[in-house]
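4.2 Preliminary Data

To establish feasibility before requesting continued support, the project team ran the inverse folding procedure on a target of 470 residues. The structure was first converted into the token representation described in Section 3, and no sequence information of any kind was made available to the design step. The complete token record follows.
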């Protein structure tokens, strides 16, 4: 077994002067609401989705707003002549222009007919065509399935009364939104099976096609996975309908059992799950899995399946319930999803397995630090940096997932398990359906414990932790 000594390399002046005991409180002054209504028709033979998206935005910010800013994730695939072609934009019933920003046009600006003030509503309709990329990204199609996420222009989040301009990176997640309500109608050929966010509220057949309607409130996004080969199994936990869509019934059965167990575990541990449905869809994604509100993609199978389902289910809290900017500090939710998975595995497979995972993670990160030290002289890598600033996907994953997990484990050791659990629950309930930052997390911990969390957070975030192996 690996014995680890973990010391925090902090300057004493930070420890003595920067004690912060401010309250854990919601810091988002704006409480605007967003309601999307999207109608989409899939021509799967040519990989084209024809869409009409309507957004009703009730604005409750302090400063007036003269334009809306959307993130158009699908335009990341423009190099392959895929992405979104906008046909028309209407604002409060009047046709308006639009402009696309960024190298690939991933930011869409729409000018408003009337400036928005506190309490105003604006109604925007965008007609567009989406050419689906071929491949294994979160948006894409293969022979097996069509993955629809980031498939509609999403209104950028608001933070400190400003639009958050989302910067895509070659690795990591970039989907990030304030919670919204969704009504989605999708027309597909009748033989297709659709896994989606939200609850299916109607089914209408017409000739060879079928139109499904879905609803979900307080969601970060609305995603789907569509395949003619899905076999579906369902069950209920705490009033939540859980469905698993697999290519083999055995996979669906295992995924369903793990999802039921994980959803129940995290609901007890953090707070209640906010939706009436939860679906796990098997995909050919180029990663183990990916989270969306009420739906996760999972490509893992065999021994990895339980851990991946648990990780993606944990994101229903650390992404869905408590949002955070994945392009600015991915460790905040990835590390927490990893830590939550560790807790789940401890419950499911026992403390010895849990300890082994922790030791293996320390060992893996220590060897990364040793390489880093020989190359650059530094022995630790900062956690808080933009996703695009990590030097490789390997470094991004190592720091946000592995070091992120070790950070929360260290926070638990410093705080004691009882206070740690209390602070985390407080973080979850305080930022329920809001967006949090590392500062918010720190303040939730500072409220419970007379410990210099500023020094702890600074050391971990800035890469000043000394990891030693004995
Ligand atoms: Zn994750």
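Position-by-position output of the design step:
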């Amino acid at each position: 077994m690996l014995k680890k000594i973990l010391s925090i390399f902090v300057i004493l002046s930070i420890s003595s002067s920067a004690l912060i005991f401010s309250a854990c409180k919601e810091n988002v002054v704006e409480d605007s609401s967003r309601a999307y209504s999207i109608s989409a028709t899939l021509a799967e033979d040519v990989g084209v989705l024809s869409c009409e998206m309507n957004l009703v935005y009730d604005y409750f910010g302090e400063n007036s707003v003269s334009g809306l800013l959307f993130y158009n994730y699908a335009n990341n695939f423009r190099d392959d002549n895929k992405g979104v072609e906008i046909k028309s934009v209407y604002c409060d019933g009047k046709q308006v222009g639009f402009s696309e920003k960024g190298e690939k046009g991933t930011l869409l600006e729409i000018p408003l007919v009337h400036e928005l003030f506190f309490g105003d509503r604006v109604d925007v309709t965008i007609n567009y065509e989406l050419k689906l990329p071929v491949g294994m990204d979160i948006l894409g199609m293969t022979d097996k399935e069509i993955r629809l996420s980031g498939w509609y222009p999403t209104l950028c989040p608001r933070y400190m009364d400003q639009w958050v301009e989302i910067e895509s990176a070659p690795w990591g997640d970039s989907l990030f939104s304030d919670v919204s309500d969704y009504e989605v109608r999708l027309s597909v050929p009748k033989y297709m099976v659709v896994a989606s966010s939200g609850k299916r509220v109607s089914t209408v057949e017409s000739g060879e096609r079928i139109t499904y309607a879905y609803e979900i409130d307080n969601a970060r996004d609305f995603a789907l996975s569509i395949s003619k080969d899905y076999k579906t199994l369902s069950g209920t936990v705490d009033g939540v309908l859980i469905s698993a869509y697999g290519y083999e019934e055995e996979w669906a059965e295992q995924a369903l059992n793990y999802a039921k167990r994980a959803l129940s575990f995290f609901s007890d541990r953090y707070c209640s799950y906010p939706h009436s449905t939860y679906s796990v869809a098997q995909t050919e994604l180029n990663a183990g899995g990916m989270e969306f509100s009420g739906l996760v993609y999972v490509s893992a199978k065999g021994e990895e399946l339980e851990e991946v389902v648990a990780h993606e289910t944990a994101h229903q809290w650390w992404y869905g319930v408590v949002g955070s900017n994945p392009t600015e500090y991915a460790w905040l939710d990835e590390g927490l999803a990893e830590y939550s998975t560790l807790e789940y595995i401890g419950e499911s497979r026992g403390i010895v397995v849990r300890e082994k995972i922790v030791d293996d993670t320390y060992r893996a990160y220590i060897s990364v630090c040793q390489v880093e030290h020989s190359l650059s002289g530094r022995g630790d890598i900062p956690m808080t940096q933009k996703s695009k600033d990590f030097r490789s996907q390997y470094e991004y994953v190592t720091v946000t997932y592995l070091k992120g997990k070790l950070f929360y484990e260290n926070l638990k050791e410093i705080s004691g398990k009882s206070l740690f659990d209390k602070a985390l629950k407080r973080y979850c309930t305080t930022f329920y359906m809001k967006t949090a930052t590392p500062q918010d997390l720190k303040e939730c911990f500072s409220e419970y414990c007379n410990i210099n969390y500023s020094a702890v957070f600074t050391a971990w975030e800035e890469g000043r932790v000394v990891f030693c192996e004995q």
